[in-house]
Amino acid sequence: MSDLRTLTLRVLRSSPGEGQSPHWEDFRVEEAEGMTLFIALNEVRETLAPSLQFDFVCRAGICGSCGMLIDGRPGLACRALTRDLGPVITLAPLPVFELIGDLSVNTGKWMRGTAERLQTWIHAQTEPDLTALEAPMEPALAEAIYELDRCIECGCCVAGCGTLRMREDFVGAVGLNKIARFRLDPRDTRTDEDFYELIGDDSGVFGCMSLLGCHDVCPKGLPLQTQIAFLRRKMASTGL
C-alpha cells in the first residue's frame, strides 16, 4: 500500500458499571499494509488505552464477537480493512443490545432469549437413538440448511433493523432465519401451524417493515430478504 496514513479512531466510550457517561475519545494509529480495524483497536489497547473494551475471539469473521458500528454501519472489525475507510473512523457499540462498556455489548443474552422464545432446536416425537446411523439427507436440502446455519449471531442484522427500534419484542432477522432453518430440517417434526404460533404476529414475520437493513449489513451474505419473504407467504397462508 502506498501513502500509508495516520488514522484517527473516534471511539464512543462509556462504562455503565463504573458510572462513566458516554463521550467521544480519539486515538491515532499509523496505518499498516492490510490493516483491519481489529488490528488497529488492538494497537490502541496495547499502547494507548489498556482500558478500552471491545470483543474478539477468532479474528476471521467466524465468531461474530467484534460487531460494532463502523462509521454508523454495523460490521465486523476483523473484516473491515482500514484502506476502505476514511482517515477518521467513528466507532460505536451496536444498538439494541445491553451495553457492557465502550464497544462491547452483550449479544449472547439477546440471542439466548430469542432462541428460547422461538425454541430453535430440533423437535422430535421420539427420543433419538444415539447408536443408530444418521439418516441420509438429499445433498441439495443439506446445502440449503447449511446455508442458513452459517449465521454467526454477530448482531449486525439486529443493529441494522428499523423494526427493532420501534418494537423491542420483534424477533429480528436472526430469529426468522432460525425458524426458516428448522422448517427445512426433516428431523424437526413441527408443522407450519406450530411455527405460526411462534412468529405469526407483529412481533414475528408480520412485523417486519421490509426495510432490509438486515440483508444489507449481514457480513456472511445470508439470503435474509428471500427467507423473510418466503416465511411471510407461508405464515399468511397458514393463518388463513
TrEMBL record:
Substrates-to-products reaction catalysed: a menaquinone + succinate = a menaquinol + fumarate
Keywords: 2Fe-2S, 3Fe-4S, 4Fe-4S, Iron, Iron-sulfur, Metal-binding, Oxidoreductase, Tricarboxylic acid cycle
Span of the signal peptide: none
Classification via Pfam families: Fer2_3 (PF13085), Fer4_8 (PF13183)
EC main group: oxidoreductase
Domain 4Fe-4S ferredoxin-type: 142-169
Cofactor note: Binds 1 [4Fe-4S] cluster. Binds 1 [3Fe-4S] cluster.
Domain 2Fe-2S ferredoxin-type: 7-95
PANTHER family, per the entry: FUMARATE REDUCTASE IRON-SULFUR SUBUNIT, SUCCINATE DEHYDROGENASE IRON-SULFUR PROTEIN
Subunit structure as annotated in this protein's UniProt entry: Part of an enzyme complex containing three subunits: a flavoprotein (frdA), an iron-sulfur protein (frdB), and diheme cytochrome b (frdC).
Name under which the protein is recorded: Fumarate reductase iron-sulfur subunit
